[in-house]
Write a structure and sequence with these properties.
nucleus; Mediator of RNA polymerase II transcription subunit 23; 5 domains; transcription; Mediator_Med23; transcription regulation
Length: about 1000
């Protein structure tokens, strides 16, 4: 050998007599001769190793010694070499791993080796494994497990002793008391190298007990690091996005992510198809479903797991529908499913053709054909989204995408007899003819268009299935007649077949608008105190909207927005064109997810325009739409809406419109409460970075600010991060405190996250209302002791000062003490007129504090005393229209009251709703609500029968309207 290590090996061979000078035989004189020879060989090798000082290539160095070991055929030589190798490892411990790997990787190292060599090798390996580090032992153990794989299920009798020696070596490493290897790494190597342990593929019998016992020792650890019963703890759709990591699944296998090689329960390692389907089949589940599989919504990778789950949902619906006899139940099931599927297929990573192909494969594997109404409903659902999905940019027109649907129709409709033509006066006709509509639309609209775009001269011929022949012929006759009146559902069936052609869509659109939007020939009862509104009062029926496809719904909404809202919204002379029926139709369209997503950004831009022009009728309409009709507002848009509508609350120009203030306040509260914990946790830092806080949180919105802070506190608690304060939170609290100084009661601080409670305790505020009773008494005396008209201007000036907010308190005190108001009517009229020039939030808070201090500091809380205060507050709201009850109650319930005083607010509220005036209003509304049938959405005269009748009896009362009506009839009040 040419390398520097060669002299050591040659010296070893010479000492052993293997260079030809002598030879060690198996018949030496006695044991002393063996020991002497062994000691001599060891001394020679030790001397050479010291002279060489370093070994450059250990693998090359150990190879000849391993060969020497494997070639030893007699016991004396094996004994000597075995002891020599052990001594060499003691000299250089770095040789332990190369020697062990050299032995295990030797081609002849298997159970067919002679017992002498095998047993000596096992003895040597037991010695060697005590020297390497954890990584070295891990590599050696992996090779040992590969030898385990060589064992047969039945070990031959002559190999029992060899297997036992091998078993002893493996057990030595696996024994945690020996500290040769981390048990976690051993468990990992067993899992990767021996994918066995199942009933159909057990471990070798001789090692089964050892391995299974070792694996079972990790079961407590597996239970400790896993969530018990996670497969049965289903997430709450819409509220569990922040905790989706607890249910994180593999995007293909749908298994929980178990990175640790631990013996988890079987339920923890099986595909969680049931859990995923539970999420998929619910509305608004898209974000959670994508979060579960760890995929971003805009990813271009196809997610087959979601496609298969949607296919399973549709197949389950088909069979479930056949069990539902009630048509309303069938419609509800498939309408909800259509919304769910449409939301998913609008994403790049999910295709309708992928879902249909999965359905094809599964239905084709059924033992028999699928009959019943379930297949018709499936075709109706596909027809709902077919044209809409095909028009999305991410869907490329290709033959296989459409042939899949044609194949599915052939599989679902194998009937030899043609299906009868349905009754088109019934909505069921839309469902019954859906399969023929899809077939006709593909073969006459889509496939020819693809052929034209790809310049193909010959079109493939698709023979109409026998079952659909009558239906397809009926559709041809409908197109020839060009239906232009809404007599029955044939109008909507034909419209669904038009596609994208504007010329073909125009007649249908004009007809629909004349009936439900623009028909000005009929007048409806006045629903407003100042002017009549003309036009239809009935919106497009929900049955009609369900009959038309998603594509047509989007066309109608787009046409209504461009032709009616954009042109007439800011023109008071043309406002009558925006009829109640048109508004209701647009609101109903927004309830469909495809329309909502399509129109949401335009509504956001419209809000900007309305607010910039201070057009409060439009703002009120938008606030109602955003509050009650839109349910899937993205987080970013929700933050922009907060910014836009907060500006209206801060503006004093709407002070005379109490219902507008109520609508916007409800909208802001809904927008804040719709933030889930993760959205809120992530959105506030963005608000801080984008400098939006100044416009979202103003001096006039203390209650909105406090609600937002409560939601942030809740998000810290729910996400389990209350013990980890973040810098942005303290910055946010500091900013809000500078805008609207506020505090919390001790009972509220106890429920807040610790760092937030400590922050508030470290930043107390001065009680600016501590002398409120004295100030009110002083102003009350100034008013009541002034009888001359010369003093009236001074009184009005005094109460109209920006720093004076006691006028509502004085009015309340006059009402409670039954003082005659007529003597002070002109004075209060002038004071209240001045209030319209600025926001009244400060006056409301002063009134709330005054009421709280009056009822909490009173010694005798008798029923008469509480009823007197409650009646006075209700009188100011319902008769004089000076205050709004909902606005006052929100402030009352958010004031920082101690726990012992909080019940007084609830007691006051109890007496208020039981007062004669308010209880009568509640009773009237209750009677109307009870008289409204369950199918209110299908009524044609709801606006006249219920809404207008209620508005006539309880019409909107503007600020001071009742006050003027009772005492100042000669004063004209303009809204």
């Amino acid at each position: 050998m040419a390398n520097i290590d060669e002299p050591i090996y040659l010296a070893c061979r010479r000492a052993l007599g293997l260079d030809g000078s002598s030879e060690i035989s198996g018949i030496l004189s006695n044991v002393q001769d063996i020991e002497a020879l062994t000691e001599h060989v060891i001394n020679v090798v030790r001397t050479k190793m010291r002279e060489q000082n370093a070994i450059r290539d250990t693998t090359t160095f150990v190879r000849p010694f391993v060969e020497l070991f494997m070639d030893s055929t007699n016991a004396p030589r094996m004994y000597t070499i075995n002891k020599l190798l052990k001594k060499m490892v003691e000299f250089h411990s770095s040789l332990a791993k190369p020697f062990a790997e050299g032995l295990l990787q030797h081609p002849r190292m298997n159970f067919t080796l002679p017992a002498l060599i095998w047993n000596s090798a096992m003895d040597l390996l037991q010695f060697l494994v005590r020297f390497p580090d954890y990584k070295g032992i891990r590599d050696i153990f992996k090779q040992l497990l590969e030898k385990v794989q060589m064992l047969m299920s039945h070990t031959p009798l002559q190999d029992i002793e060899k297997v036992f020696k091998f078993y002893t070596l493996v057990a030595l490493i696996m024994n945690p008391d020996n500290n040769l290897q981390l048990s976690y790494f051993i468990q990992n190597e067993i899992k990767q190298t021996l994918p066995w342990g199942k009933p159909e593929n057990p471990y070798p019998p001789c090692f089964s007990s050892l391995i299974l016992k070792f694996i079972d020792s990790f079961r407590p650890t597996a239970q400790l690091v896993s969530i018990t019963g996670r497969d049965m703890l289903y997430p709450i759709v819409g509220y569990s996005n922040y905790a989706s990591i607890l249910w994180r699944l593999h995007y293909v296998k749908l298994k929980f992510h178990q990175t640790a090689p631990l013996p988890f329960d079987r339920a923890q390692v099986q595909p969680q198809t049931e859990l995923f389907c539970y999420v998929i089949k619910q509305l608004n589940s898209r974000d959670l479903a994508f979060s579960l599989v760890g995929i971003a919504r805009n990813v271009k990778q196809r997610i087959t797991a979601i496609e298969e789950s949607l296919a399973d949902l549709l197949i389950w619906n088909m069979f479930e529908t056949n069990k539902i006899q009630d048509f309303e139940g069938q419609l509800h099931l498939w309408t909800v499913t259509a919304h769910i599927v449409l939301v998913y297929v609008q994403n790049v990573c999910i295709t309708l053709s992928g879902i249909l192909n999965t359905i094809n494969l599964k239905v084709a594997s059924f033992p028999g054909p699928v009959y019943g109404i379930g297949r018709d409903w499936l075709m109706w659902l596909i027809g709902q989204m077919l044209c809409h999905v095909l028009n999305k940019n991410h869907v490329k027109s290709a033959w296989p995408d459409y042939l899949v649907l044609l194949d599915l129709i052939r599989i679902l409709y194998p009937d030899n007899q043609a299906l009868p033509e349905p009754d088109y006066r019934d909505f069921q006709s839309v469902v019954s003819i859906a399969a023929a509509s899809n077939w006709y639309f593909l073969t006459t609209r889509v496939i020819p268009a693809i052929a034209a775009s790809t310049q193909q001269n010959s079109l493939p011929q698709h023979q109409t299935p026998n079952a659909l022949y009558v239906h397809v012929e009926a559709l041809k006759s409908f197109e020839d007649r060009k239906l232009s009146s809404i007599d029955d559902y044939r109008f909507y069936i034909c419209w669904n077949l038009v596609g994208n052609d504007p010329k073909l869509n125009s007649p249908y659109m004009d007809t629909l608008f004349k009936v439900y939007v623009l028909n000005t020939s009929q007048s409806i009862p006045a629903s407003h105190m100042s002017h009549n509104v003309y036009g239809p009062s009935e919106g497009i029926p929900y049955r009609s909207l369900d009959a038309i496809s998603a594509h047509v719904k989007c066309l109608i909404a787009r046409q209504y927005y461009s032709d009616i809202i954009s042109k007439n919204l800011f023109n008071p002379a043309q406002w009558s064109m925006v009829s109640p029926g048109g508004v209701e139709s647009f609101a109903r369209l927004l309830a469909y997810p495809e329309v909502e997503q399509d129109r949401l950004k335009e509504l956001l831009n419209l809000t900007d325009t309305i607010i910039s022009k201070n057009w409060f009728v439009g703002a009120h309409l938008l606030a109602e739409l955003l509050t009650f009709r839109l349910h899937r507002i993205p987080t970013s848009i929700r933050a922009q809406l907060l910014q836009q509508f907060s500006g209206i609350l801060a503006s004093p120009s709407h002070a005379g419109h109490p219902q507008l203030h109520c609508a916007i306040q409800n909208l802001l509260l809904n927008l804040i409460l719709q933030f889930n914990c993760t959205d809120l946790y992530n959105q506030v830092p963005k608000l801080i970075d984008s400098k939006m806080l100044q416009s979202v949180f103003t001096k006039e919105s203390e209650e909105i600010n406090k609600v937002f802070i409560l939601c942030i506190a809740r998000s810290f608690i729910v996400t389990g991060s209350e013990s980890m304060p973040v810098p942005w939170c303290t910055d946010f609290l500091t900013h809000i405190m500078q805008i609207t100084p506020h505090g919390w009661s001790a009972s509220t601080l106890e429920t807040m996250p610790t760092f937030m409670a400590e922050w508030y305790r470290a930043h107390p505020i001065n009680d600016i209302y501590r002398d409120i009773r004295a100030r009110v008494d002083d102003d009350y005396k100034k008013l009541t002791n002034s009888a001359s008209l010369a003093n009236e201007q001074e009184i009005v000036k005094h109460f109209s000062q920006p720093t004076n907010t006691t006028c509502l308190c004085v009015f309340l005190k006059l009402t409670i003490e039954d003082r005659p108001l007529r003597s002070y009517i002109n004075t209060f009229y002038e004071i209240f007129k001045n209030l319209l020039t600025r926001s009244m939030n400060g006056h409301y808070r002063t009134l709330a504090e005054y009421i709280l201090r009056e009822i909490t500091l009173q010694q005798n809380h008798s029923q008469t005393f509480m009823q007197k205060y409650a009646d006075a507050v209700v009188l100011m709201a319902t008769r004089y229209n000076i205050i709004q009850l909902d606005r006052l109650l929100l402030i009352l319930f958010l004031r920082p009251l101690e726990e012992s005083k909080t019940p007084y607010v609830h007691i006051l509220f109890y007496f208020m709703i039981n007062s004669n005036t308010l209880s009568e209003i509640i009773k009237d509304f209750g009677n109307i609500a009870r008289s409204i049938p369950c199918d209110i959405w299908s009524m044609k005269n709801f606006h006249e029968k219920f809404h207008c009748e209620y508005v006539k009896k309880n019409n909107e009362r503007f600020f001071m309207e009742g006050f003027i009506k009772d005492y100042l009839q000669s004063v004209s009040f303009e809204e």
